[in-house]
Design brief:
By secondary structure, the chain is mainly beta. It has helices at residues 69-73, 346-367, and strands at residues 6-8, 17-18, 23-24, 31-33, 42-43, 48-49, 56-58, 80-82, 88-89, 105-106, 114-116, 137-141, 149-153, 158-160, 164-167, 171-175, 181-182, 191-193, 199-201, 210-217, 222-232, 248-253, 258-262, 268-277, 288-292, 298-301, 309-318, 323-331.
Amino acid sequence: MLHLKELGLNNMEELVSIDKFALVNLPELTKLDITNNPRLSFIHPLAFHHLPQMETLMLNNNALSALHQQTVESLPNLQEVGLHGNPIRCDCVIRWANATSTRIRFIEPQSTLCAEPPDLQRLPVREVAFREMTDHCLPLISPRSFPRRLQVASGASLVLHCRALAEPEPEIYWVTPAGVRLTAAWAGRKYRVYPEGTLELRRVTAQEAGLYTCVAQNLVGADTKTVSVVVSRAPPQHGRDKGWGLELRVQETHPYHILLSWVSPPNTVSTNLTWASASTLQGHGATALARLPRGTHSYNITRLLQATEYWACLQVAFADAHTQLACVWARTTEAASCRRGLGDRPGLIAILALAVLLLAAGLAAHLGVGQPRQGVGGRPLLPVWAFWGWSTPSARVVSAPLVLHWDPGRKWPRSSEGGTLSPPSSQRS
């Protein structure tokens, strides 16, 4: 990946947003092509980090209302941008596009038109007098973020994405049918709000049915978007079997990776797996995303930290635009220390003790304690290691000569010449 030159993310029906630090550390990437994604309505100002060679950014034919100035400034070598085919809102967020100091060229500038406000519709972005605008503007939630009505089966889960751009940066929160305000990093039994503004409804029942409102608010004002959630008694028969429930399971946990598994529902068109550490709920760290091919039933999440809690969510989409979501929490185990004392290994101590006893017994048998050392057939005895299956070393083995102690009363045998063998007499100097 470090040597990747071009990257394309095109024709993805379920791609809604490109969040903070989504693409990082691609030092040789020169062209990024993110086009023809009908639901892509948001690119975080800090979505791209450490892409020093990026020259071309293609974002045409999406649902983007703007491209933030921070995004452009984070790409120091950027030369051209394609934004045509997007419902651009011509306000302070995109005023950099017509600044005299900008060095960036628009691809098809005559087709890059304003969609809002009404008095600027169909006007090329490069012809808008942004100098007359203030530095602050209202938040805008993309109308394509989610539909006005969603149906979900009782017991299933649902994900609602809400993103907005403005100056200054807006705060995003949700209001439930009961009037409860759910702010970022909210985590409860039924609801969870992720830092970027996504609302997750878990195992919904008829009590959770009703209107859910996303609110994006800053010092200038607020924008809202409402969706009606309808909970049916039986799972709807749109692209899936009756009674099918998606379940994500943790198969194995290790110090640096977690193995997940699931049973893929029939008639799915896409499967996405998202994961991150628990610290992302406080705004720290980045969220990882894997787009999985059809028929995948397991995934091994790697490059994790030991003794750390992680969450993972599996989202499957069906041909009728319905989606299902299943999430789990898992904690990586603690890595075993490599520096353990012998006191922590009683089995190793027993093995070492047995080896010492065997070595001592072998030496005793070889040396023949209290007996003269004799060979077999006149040959010297082999060293101990020869009986342990080791190969004979290249060095020559020489046994010590046999020495008998002097016994004055001993009778010496006769030699072959008939004489008597006697010890040599000592010589005095």
